[in-house]
Amino acid sequence: MSHLRTMFLSNKKEDSEGVRTLVEGLESDMQDMVELNVEVARTEQGIEEMSEIVASLESIAEAAEASLEDGGLDRHSAVMMKLAVSQQTSRLFDGEIVPSMESFGGASERLAATRVSVEGIKETIEDIWKSIKENILKLKKKIQLWFVKVFAASSKLVKKAKAIADKASNASGTAKESKITINVAKKLHIDGSVKDLKGGAATLEALATKFFDNTVKSTFKGIDRFTDVVADVDTSDQAKYDTWIKRIYEGVPDYTDGMPIAVSKSASNTSFSNDSELGAEWHASEELFGGKALWAVKFGLNTDNTTEEGRKLIHKCFSTSFVSKLDNLNTKPKEVDNEADIDTLSLSDIGAIADSVAAAAQSIVDYENRSIEGGKKKDKVTKAGDTLAKAIKSNDLDGIDGELNRVKDLPSTLVKLIDSPTNQLVGFVTGSAQALLSVCEKSLAQYK
Predict the structure, then answer these.
(1) Angle formed by the axes of helices 347-394 and 401-444, to 10°?
(2) What does the pLDDT look like over 140-171, one tens digit per residue?
């Protein structure tokens, strides 16, 4: 059974999901983080797919309902509707919700069968919405649990790193062996080999400390600006509306600006498409551990918020699904064996790496209060969406509903700006930190 069907059908019966035994300890915390991250990603994808199915079924129901004024759907139109409905519902469950084609025979039968079909589609939509709501609650619990493990693991990494740094400062002599064997090369390689761990750790520290402070603050500032402008929405007068909508689309965002490390390098990861209409180009940082890079999009579009067509293009810039992310630097990353022989780290390098790891992990620990603030920002974004929905409902001006609906789509994008990069970077930073400390411990064992 597909994961999407499981998500939908699990709400039809008693659900035992979510019962998880958590074991204390750094290793178990890290493993729980990985597993929870996979669960969160799958649940988010399922919710998005169910929302798409709802949108399709709503369009089908609307078209079928409109036919009632003309006596309902004829048999040919009913066949097309049945196929369209089944294409969507088969992703969630077996069985049909549209009556058999024989029901669309005579005039009275046709009208009754169309009504039954519309009612069946609407009931199905309601069931899917219930499932979406239930899964959103599950998702919230999973994310909360994931953060519990994140902060627990990060605190342990800080303590472990500081202990290693102290031990390195008190050690002396030369290493007994000039080489050590590690089994974390996949996580720590750069361009296919494990080298300059001290420099890589310093970059990891900069990435973590600057992202969880400056970049997150910048994101929150943008959300505050958007929600403040939305609160001033005014559809009572065309001139007031024109002023307001231009404030929403005041400028084209440059997502490469304000990144925690420079993202100015053109690279060969073709999984990101560049949009010529928007002048969109993806830029990457220098290569990070594991062949990864921080990516961000930059738009070369000229700002024109005085016309609806211009604002449509600016809107596309705002509503890009992913504007920054952590991904492979190259489309085909180098194959690396996890086991590798490397030079034993010097005591000074062990101390420097441990200090960088402690600082990087501490930035995640400090982010705990910021994550609470992030939850409040999401609440503000949700309220902004409600404000826009009311404005659309009470609007008396002609020709602006489409544009208002576009603005109403922006809150979901803003929530992604809070969640997606944060979740990716937390996993990357903690995973890299744990791998670095394991190399430090193996090297430290070579000294007195």
Answers:
(1) 170
(2) 777 777 778 888 889 999 999 999 999 999 99
